[in-house]
């Protein structure tokens, strides 16, 4: 019995790690959960979602700059858009998503 419990416990740990690694959120999912509150309506000077004019000069900086500013924050833009649980890749996905809708 004790042994069964141990096996179950280690399977549980393994499964939770596996699902954590596998479940990368899409740009759209991250955007809706963490970025839309500011970028949806253009709050505090945030470039508004889908607003080509607002994004033009930002996109012109190049994607690496946009990724860095999204990850580290810039002026009123908080680091990772306050999504502390997002991976760097997930933040990049969200930037890609916003940029793709503003071109
Ligand atoms: C608390 C409000 C807020 C949230 C939440 C937020 N942003 Fe922003 N974001 C801003 C503001 C304000 C700016 C404009 C900053 C500036 O240039 O002065 C900005 C700018 C940006 C830029 C352009 C940076 C540049 O170099 O021009 C990107 C990319 C960006 N945000 C991505 C994101 C992503 C991705 C998320 C979600 C994970 C997010 N933001 C969530 C407020 C927010």
Summarize the structure.
With 103 residues, the protein is mainly α. 64% of the residues lie in helices and 0% in strands.
What's the tally of helices?
A: 5
Shape label: elongated
Number of strands: 0
N to C succession of SSEs: HHHHH
Instruction: Please give the CATH architecture.
Output: Orthogonal Bundle
Q: Might you state the CATH topology name?
A: Cytochrome Bc1 Complex, Chain D, domain 2
Structural notes for this entry:
There is one protein chain. With 103 residues, this protein is an all-alpha fold. It has one domain (25-100): Cytochrome Bc1 Complex, Chain D, domain 2. Helices cover 64% and strands 0% of the residues. The chain has 5 helices and no strands. It has helices at residues 2-22, 27-39, 52-60, 63-72, 88-100. Helix 2 (27-39) crosses helix 5 and helix 4 (63-72) crosses helix 5 (88-100). The radius of gyration is 18 Å and the shape is elongated. The model has no long low-confidence stretch (mean pLDDT 88).
